User: Fold these one by one.
Assistant:
Number 1:
Amino acid sequence: MVNNKHIATFILGALAGLAAGKYTSMSEEEKEQMMNNLKEKANKLKEDASKSAEQAKDYFSELATKGMDSLKEHFPGAEKWMSDLFGNKSADSHTAASDTGSTEASPS
């Protein structure tokens, strides 16, 4: 049974064959020009990707800052709540254990 993956593989193979045939029939000057064009496009793509990655980093940094500011504005106790929720668990458990121990010792 032939599925879409087989058809796509066949088409890509045929296109690769045509490209190879075209490349072999080119003059050395045309081959060099084509390679230079490909290098320029690859460098441009690399620059665009670097810029996009930097923009994404800045965007997420700004989003985190604005998000926390917005959260603080609409939920004034958000910072304490987040600290309590995600804070140092081992220090909290030691504090809770010492508090529990001190309250149990006083009634006896």
Number 2:
Amino acid sequence: MEVNHMLEKQQPIVALNHPTRPKKTQPPRNNLLLSLKKNDLELNFYSCLAPEVMNKLLEKVLS
């Protein structure tokens, strides 16, 4: 009789949700796109540089 009484009091097993941690947002990488040497001038262009600015600089250096 005690065994039946214990079975009646048992609770169902429920899976617990793991707490979700917010993902850390990392700034975008600043990758080297182009390294240029001309005479005594050395230019390094990184991905954060606006394409329009890079084009203007290249036009002036290479002309």
